[in-house]
């Protein structure tokens, strides 16, 4: 089963590169580990996912406000949030060739579950089980490694000028809570939503776009009255499932993991990880966390500014509680592609196609003349193309190779409909439209497209 | 005139903060110089500008392909492009308090034009004119300062692990040229387009969002046959002007500066800077540069990979030439807000409003009940709100204060239409609709909204 799963993952990596979805970052120079670049179809798919999210969680709601904070922030943000001290991974070293590894990954790769272990317990486990490095050498004791990328802002590189590439977008929301309340004074509950890049200096990035050093997040901090947290938690959980449905993820591959108290952050009243059956196994797709007043209280303490919310028309004041739905764009993208990837057989030949939901497909219609060397067919097909392009935008002209090859290519990029203009089209104004999923073809009038 | 201009700039900075467009980055912790955060209305306006650009330059065209490269790239990218060696600013120091300044800015602030001066010539000018630091102290000789932010990727911080926050999105396009050609083999001319963050460690960020340390670019590299460069240059220039028209920028405030040969990069055959009359003066809004084969040839030399394009069905091979239209989102945003900012007088009172083009306005309709304590008015207004929200998305409920205050607030955020539901609405199904620019009100049927 593991072998079969890896085969699917490899097939996806290969298809997405070949067809212009996803390339290794800095590919032409031999790459930069943990970074990925998006080609024309990858960009289109990613934009469709991100815009769907924004429409669902921001534009169509009355209780959500968008923000967009800078990636570089005052270092106090990460001191207050605890990231400077505690955003660390355990790191051990091959004592011979000095290669470094995440201790928890080394354990997992050796069939030992590191969940809940302290760093010391991991080191003990390595000793007890005689775990070696992937090159067969002894491993050093672990030390902590902060996963934030460090840089310096301004002309002097010293302690004062240290800044970090944000490891999450969430803090860019919390630091703007007061600004938004001052500008809009929204009633509780209300949410601030943000999409943007985040960075983690992963020691061992892996599993394609699942664990990368640079990624895109879609996060909401939903501010609630301290008595109403559970209610909003439930309603946001339902909204998350609606979004996952729209991504075309099969319900049976989506799992809620209620994180037990001992595994939650100390401030969290409740956390649900939404896991998905990726080709690499069941892994976290997104999280929903009840963070209480932890973040705003930290900001209040360190900045000295009052973060209390005053309920309109009353004297009631408190630091609001927060529910945080946190999505990773690349993980959503990987789930969408994994769910869409399908192999079947057509006329005795193996076929690969991506059965994206229509509203996510990078290309909705591909338009072809039956023969590219017949000017009258090309002219008519160009007309049809122009009409659909103007109407839908995401329409592709495709006259390369014979019709069979075109279908094959459009199947691989997940185009729901291929439209072919033939000699009958010139006579009666109809075209052939071919359905990606059933491969069925039927004739319809150009006007009905 | 200068004072008046600064007044307008200050009024814009104040309005955009108060109304939830733009806040200082890391505001709650005293800020981080050169960074800005976008509030709900700023995000909406920025998204509208960026989506308009994408629609115009990518989705509606047959010759454009989107890409989205990682911000962190292999350091060879910036060695090959020349940024490691030459992306520098001249930096001088107050010899008493050790504060550092950009030498060219110090000269400009003292009425001396540094255009075309070498660093040595700037130092001579400082001596000759007796220029002092803003604190009145002598200035040191200048040295060069690289404007790229530096970080380290992976667990070891050494020369090999150095990476940079990209100072432009362009190189993320060039490095994907071959990937896209391999996936799609488009006919020449074709363009690759990207939107994304870029970072420059400016010594003295200033002028609101005009010169910042973190900003968003929209860039196209348009690949052409070496004989056809001028033609594509002209046609892209026309496309740029169409975009600026759609931003609502008055034609008389937009200027083409044909950069003379001696001021162009050595590889550039032609460069036009599009300048705009900002409140801070006439400054660069965007650039259009004919970069010849400079970038692809560098990549070919350093990577050893062939960057030649083979014209389909022929033996003709060459490294394509490139035309680069390069837009800054924040500068476009600042131009849009500056162009929209208007003061007039209504009934003897001063009024401020933002006359955004309708397709860019963050809020298109504001819906109010005439009186918020009349449940039947509120109910009817909520109905109207729900209809318009579903249809347009960018619709705001506004029942704070009296109608006059609501109009004032909506004027300041640039809402084209305010809709008021009153007692007549309950009788005859009409509402009052008020025009932002003329302040005229008329009654129309709810169905006609």
Describe, in plain words, how this protein is organized in 3D.
The structure is a homodimer of 449-residue chains. With 449 residues, chain A is an alpha+beta fold. Chain A is built from 14 helices and 23 strands. Chain A has a 7-stranded mixed beta sheet. A 5-stranded mixed beta sheet of chain A has the order 20-19-21-22-23, with helices on both faces. A 3-stranded antiparallel beta sheet of chain A has the order 5-4-6. At the A-B interface, strand 2, helix 2, helix 3, strand 7 and helix 8 of A face strand 2, helix 2, helix 3, strand 7 and helix 8 of B.
List keywords for this structure.
homodimer, 449 residues, alpha+beta, seven-stranded mixed sheet, five-stranded mixed sheet
Q: In terms of topology, how is this protein built?
A:
Two copies of one chain form a homodimer.
Chain A: H1 2-18, E1 22-24, E2 36-38, H2 40-59, E3 64-66, H3 76-80, H4 83-86, E4 88-93, E5 100-102, H5 103-109, H6 119-129, E6 143-146, E7 150-152, E8 162-164, H7 170-174, H8 177-184, E9 190-199, E10 214-224, H9 229-246, E11 254-258, E12 270-278, E13 281-292, H10 294-303, E14 309-310, E15 317-318, E16 321-328, H11 329-340, E17 341-346, E18 349-354, E19 365-369, H12 375-392, E20 395-397, H13 403-412, E21 417-421, H14 423-428, E22 430-435, E23 441-445
Parallel strand pairs in A: 3-9, 19-20, 19-21
Antiparallel strand pairs in A: 1-2, 4-5, 4-6, 7-8, 9-10, 10-16, 11-12, 12-13, 13-16, 14-15, 17-18, 21-22, 22-23
């Amino acid at each position: 089963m593991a072998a079969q799963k890896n085969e699917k993952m490899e097939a996806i990596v290969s298809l997405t590169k070949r067809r212009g979805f996803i390339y290794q970052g800095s590919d032409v120079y031999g790459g930069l580990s943990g970074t990925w670049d998006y080609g024309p179809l990858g960009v289109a798919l990613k934009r469709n996912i991100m815009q769907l999210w924004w429409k669902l969680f921001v534009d169509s709601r009355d209780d959500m406000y968008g923000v967009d904070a800078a990636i570089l922030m005052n270092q106090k943000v990460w001191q207050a949030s605890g990231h400077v001290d505690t955003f660390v991974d355990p790191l051990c070293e091959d004592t011979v060739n000095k290669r470094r590894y995440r201790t928890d990954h080394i354990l997992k790769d050796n069939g030992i579950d590191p969940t809940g272990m302290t760093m010391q317990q991991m080191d003990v486990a390595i000793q007890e089980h005689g775990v070696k490095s992937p090159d067969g050498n002894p491993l050093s004791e672990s030390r902590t490694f902060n996963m934030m990328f460090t840089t310096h802002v301004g002309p002097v590189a010293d302690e004062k000028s240290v800044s970090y590439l944000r490891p999450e977008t969430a803090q860019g929301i919390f630091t703007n809570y007061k600004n938004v309340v001052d500008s809009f004074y929204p009633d509780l509950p209300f949410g601030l939503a943000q999409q943007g890049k985040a960075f983690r200096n992963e020691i061992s990035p892996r599993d394609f776009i699942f664990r990368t050093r640079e990624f895109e997040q879609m996060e909401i901090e939903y501010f609630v009255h301290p008595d109403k947290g559970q209610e909003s938690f439930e309603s946001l959980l339902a909204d998350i499932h609606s979004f996952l449905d729209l991504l075309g993820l099969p319900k049976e591959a989506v799992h809620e993991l209620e994180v037990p108290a001992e595994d939650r952050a100390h401030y969290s009243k409740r956390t649900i990880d939404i896991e998905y059956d990726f080709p690499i196994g069941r892994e976290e797709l997104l999280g929903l966390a009840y963070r209480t007043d932890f973040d705003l209280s930290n900001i209040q303490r360190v900045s000295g500014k009052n973060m209390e919310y005053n309920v309109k028309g009353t004297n009631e004041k408190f630091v609001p509680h927060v529910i945080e739905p946190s999505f990773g764009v690349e993980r959503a993208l990987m789930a969408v592609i994994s769910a869409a990837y399908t192999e079947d057989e057509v006329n005795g030949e193996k076929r690969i196609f991506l059965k994206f939901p229509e509203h996510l497909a990078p290309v909705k219609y591909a338009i072809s003349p039956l023969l590219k060397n017949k000017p009258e067919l090309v002219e008519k097909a160009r007309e049809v193309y122009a009409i659909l392009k103007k109407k839908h935008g995401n329409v592709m002209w495709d006259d390369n190779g014979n019709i069979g090859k075109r279908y094959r290519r459009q199947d691989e990029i997940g185009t729901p409909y291929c439209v072919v203009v033939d000699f009958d089209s010139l006579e009666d104004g109809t075209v052939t439209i071919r359905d990606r999923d059933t491969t069925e073809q039927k004739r319809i009038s150009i006007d009905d497209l």
